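Reply to thread "Modeling small-molecule complexes from scratch"

Following up on the discussion above, here's a worked example others can learn from. I took a protein sequence and the SMILES for pyridoxal-5'-phosphate and predicted the complex. Inputs first:
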Amino acid sequence: MTASEIRALFAVVSRPEVVSLAGGMPAVTALPLDSVGSMIGALVSRLGAQALQYGSGQGDERLREQILQVMALEGITDASADEVVVTVGSQQGLDLLARVFLDPGDVILAESPSYVGALGTFQAAQAHVVHVDMDESGLVPEALAAALAGLAAQGRQAKFLYTVPNFHNPAGVTLSEPRREQILALAEAYDLLVIEDNPYGLLGFEHEPLRALRARNAERVIYLGSFSKTFAPGLRVGWVCAPHAVRDKLVLASEAQVLCPPALSQLVVAEYLDSQPWFEQVKVFRELYHERRDATLEALTALMPADVTWTRPEGGFYVWVTLPEGLDAKAMQPRAVHARVAYVPGIGFYADGQGARHLRLSYCFPDPDRIREGVRRLAGVVEEELELRATFLGSSDERAVRRDASAPQGSAPGEVSSRTRGGQPHGQADTPGPDLP
Ligand SMILES: Cc1ncc(COP(=O)(O)O)c(C=O)c1O
């Protein structure tokens, strides 16, 4: 296991002068905190003996019934409460799935990039992650087909495909309607299990939720949900919905880990769903994140240097930014923090070291003015980075030209000088010159 990029950032971004576009922390201050507080107080007075006691390993039955209604909002209408396992956030669900399905050396397929917390569980299980390309419509079916065919040609089979179809973390994109069908058709053809991780599905800004993959195929899809983004991450309540045989194993694995999910948190969620206007609150969150998404995209358009590109999320928390050729988001990070803005470098979202030119911006937590200020600072850092690179490449090119001129036998074997590269203009070389510090 390696340190998460995100955890390493926490110490820095909590400084008030830093605009953090790094962590994906939901805007819990938008909750009606007083009524939630009174609700919790009354709950403990009324049901303390249950709320403060151990509970069932599979999770509270009333909550599991309510989870069925939440999933129905995304078209899952054929699930039973018996298929649901309540977990300590969907993160525990991911860990349980890794424990149940993965042996060291197993292959799994995941989007390129992928949620860092899922990669952590797969890597802890010593699985080999094969990334599959995405574009603005989500996972690319042709790329998935090629990956599956490639594995089959080696006599191997992936244990599962891990996918975040809605408002992807970190890429911000959503799997289109036709692609949902294409991906499931491929899963059928290759006997592939699909893990659908969907914590953001109800937080769309532009259209009603697309039907979940699980709603289209109950046998082949294991579904993960969470109350972290629609209610409160501090309660740590999520769930897995899985066919019976898998559900049995998940409960056993969960009992070995935590005995049972926290009874108080489950009762709080169940009571919140029953007694508070929870879906109205989801609409409040949608509007708030919508406004912040707009502020982010407008600021990026107005302020970022040319050649920086980014995705356009239709919901959720994240924008995925691609820097110009030659820039490295991780190397740039200390200068960004010095300029008092934080983001997550892209490299953490890949299992194989890709992602140097990418970074993730989260717009969920800061208000629109802070977002604009953060993007302004970041744009300044990117501009400086580009200037710095042009300067270094410039002096490198000049030095290489001088050395070529004085060398009787020309360049050393294998060394490509700026002249033999065809004298590209400063700042546009495809690889750093040999003298670059
Ligand atoms: C895609 C995805 N899956 C799972 C999680 C874990 O969420 P939780 O454990 O809070 O339910 C997150 C959190 O950010 C996420 O973005």
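What I'd highlight from this example: The longest helix spans residues 368-406. The chain has a mean pLDDT of 90. Questions welcome below.
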